[in-house]
Amino acid sequence: MGAGNLCLIINMNPLFKTYGLAKQALFALDPERAHNATMAALQKAYDCDVTRGMTHDLPILPTTVMGLSFKNPVGLAAGLDKDGAHIDALGNLGFGFIEVGTVTPRAQPGNPKPRMFRLPKAEALINRLGFNNAGLDAFIANVNRSQYRSRGGVLGLNIGKNADTPIEKATDDYLIALAGVYPHADYVTVNISSPNTKNLRDLQSGDALDGLLAAVAAERERLAQQHARRVPIAVKIAPDVDEHQLDAITEALVRHQMDAVIATNTTISRDRVQGLPHANEAGGLSGAPLHEQSLAVIAQLRAKLGAGFPIIGVGGIVSGKHALEKVRAGADLVQIYTGLIYQGPGLIGDCVEALARSTRRQA
């Protein structure tokens, strides 16, 4: 999922109850420009102690998944902070965990602009960013500067391949990135599901998937011995998979002892946004229209993987009700992103509270 025009106005604090006005102003800007301006403003507010240390009136909902302890099961999906430059500022908003990236071994500019489009009537976004990032060295430096992990936050680092790396050599990029981020991550996500890097989704099938995960598993064992620490690895998949592909994916996840699956990335389908402005732009569709599609994939994964295999549900969560539906379909954790563009950071609390209410009813 690519970066968006997220307005991180913290509407749980009296200083930040102007989300509607800020959203209106930001929606008048190009989405990518609005995103960059918002992230800069959020970071400045954090650095000046305007938001630092802010407390949130959220239920306590500790969750253990992949052997990791989360203060709540609602996380930020990868793509918002591709370079890991704003981890502490984002971590202050009430998330149970943060995932940053996707990072590639070498810096790359991504696809030509414009490459991001809002579909407000559908609460959706189309992006074709193409893993734009400053590269592995800059990413690791940013992660090391952050204090989120030392303060108890769970940090996921999302890795991918460079656009100019031939698909038959993609494994080399993933192994370079894995070795680089391994000492700095609570978990690592192998992203093989973005539609915006040519042929990347070919890695989700057959021998390509088996070979990649076998190599990742072997490298993880080497790194675990080197660092005396076994870091969980998740694999992020697309919603545009058929039954045969899901069978191959689930079998490979188990065979190579992956620790979680993230379902799902953006979709290339336009079935739910036909006729809307920008609906025919190339790229991945995220936001509300993706919810039902990702929900179906989560349910299928749970049926195939059984009760114990961790699933992180992401895609189209724009309300607490959606987060609860993801969990009821089989997700252990959820991630949000595009919904924040339309709902604001209050969505974090809505999701946590919906899950907490459900837990209390079951107790």
Number of strands: 13
Series of secondary-structure elements, N-terminal to C-terminal: HHEEEHEEEHEHEHEHEEHEHEHH
Choose one word for the global shape.
globular
Biggest sheet, open or closed, and with what strands and sense?
Answer: 8 strands, parallel, barrel
**Which structural class best describes the helix and strand composition?**
alpha/beta
Uncertain runs are 1-16
Q: Quickly count the domains.
A: 1
Estimate percent helicity: 25-40%
Strand order of the largest sheet: 3-4-7-8-9-10-12-13
Q: In whole angstroms, how far apart are the ends?
A: 35 Å
Indicate the topology.
Elements: H1 19-26, H2 31-47, E1 63-65, E2 68-70, E3 74-76, H3 87-91, E4 97-103, E5 116-119, E6 124-127, H4 136-145, E7 154-159, H5 170-181, E8 187-191, H6 206-227, E9 233-237, H7 243-255, E10 260-263, E11 284-287, H8 291-305, E12 311-314, H9 320-329, E13 333-336, H10 338-343, H11 346-362
Parallel strand pairs: 3-4, 3-13, 4-7, 7-8, 8-9, 9-10, 10-12, 12-13
Antiparallel strand pairs: 1-2, 5-6, 6-11
Helix pairs in contact: 5-6, 6-7, 7-8, 8-9, 9-11
